[in-house]
Structure formats: structure tokens, C-alpha cells
Amino acid sequence: MSNLITAEELATTVKQKLSGQIKNTAVYKGQLTIEVDKSELRQICESLRDADEFQFEQLIDLCGVDYLTYGQDEWSTNEASGSGFERGRESLDFDKEPDSPRFAVVYHLLSVTLNQRIRIRVLVDAEDMMVPSVVDIWNGANWFEREAFDLFGILFEGHPDLRRILTDYGFIGHPFRKDFPVIGELEMRYDEEQKQCVYEPVSIEERILVPRVIR
Fold it and tell me: What is the pLDDT of residue 1?
């Protein structure tokens, strides 16, 4: 236990070892987050996996983020409070800027050997959704990248089998995008005459059901 290092000490080592490749670093709740450009992603990931100072041999999670309404009010009603979930959030040193890319891919790494963790964030522009795949670096990224593609529409260059994993192969759109309608765009039913399932535009009206917060 005496060999454990703090997130601040890890940040210092990362800056020294990967000097010039990292855009920003921040420590929050005892965990280090680094922000990198996608052009540097693979090289940084390989260094974090292979360097003796890091040994991040396991990718424990990979997810997409949509910052479309980041910093805006959560509820679109006149009666509700404008300080909902965000009131308990503390900002990182490199928090999302209003004009920065809409999407991000976040990687959570674990070093079992050194018992330390790190988080990587890569911002992704809506006009260029392609990010290098890290499947050949951590094989566990396979289904994580498929999930981010399915739910956010983020493409992973070099992925061996990039296809939907949670929605139907013929599904249109990406459900976790914040501009995707909650009720969806299509509904499916079984047609007795055609003896098959058919897709049609949704027939229900979207309703906003949010709690009313009074302070």
C-alpha cells in the first residue's frame, strides 16, 4: 500500500512522460482525467498500457457523451426550477466550452498491477465523427465501441466489426443523442395481411413529463 501514488502524482508523471501530447489534465474526486486530440489517441493509449510507470492493462469502460444542451436548463417548462441536476456538479479545470465540439469519447483505464486509474477524454466534432479504434490495444473495447456507435453515431476507424449492438440493424438514428425524440421515430407492428413485421412512423404524441421543483 505504501507504493500507491496519488492522482496528483500520476498527473505529474503523465505530463513528464507524454509531454506535448496532452491538451489538458484535471484531478476530480481523486481521479485524473486527461484530454487528448484524437490524432494522438492511439499513441497515448499504447504508452499508458506499456510504460512501466503506468501499466494500464485494462479498459474498464468506454462511452460517448453528447454536450448538445450542456449548461442549459434541464426542464422546458415555465414552472420548473432552472437549477436541477447541474446544481450539484463541480466543474473540471477544462470544462466544456460553449463553442467546442459537441461529442466526446471517454475511456476509463485501470492498472491492476499498480492499482491506479485514469480517464481519457477525446472531443469529437459533429462534422467528423471518426475516432481511431483501440480494439487492438484493449480487446475489451470491441463491444464498447459498438455501443457508442449505436447510441451516439460515433464511428471507430479500424474496428473489426462496427455494427449496432443494442438496437435493430435497420434502426434509424442514434437514441442517446440529445436531439433524438424520446418516443423514437418509428414503431413496429405485425401485419396480418403481409405476415411480417412492418415499420411505420410513431402514432403517439410526445409529452413532457417532468417533476415540478419549487424552491
Answer: 43
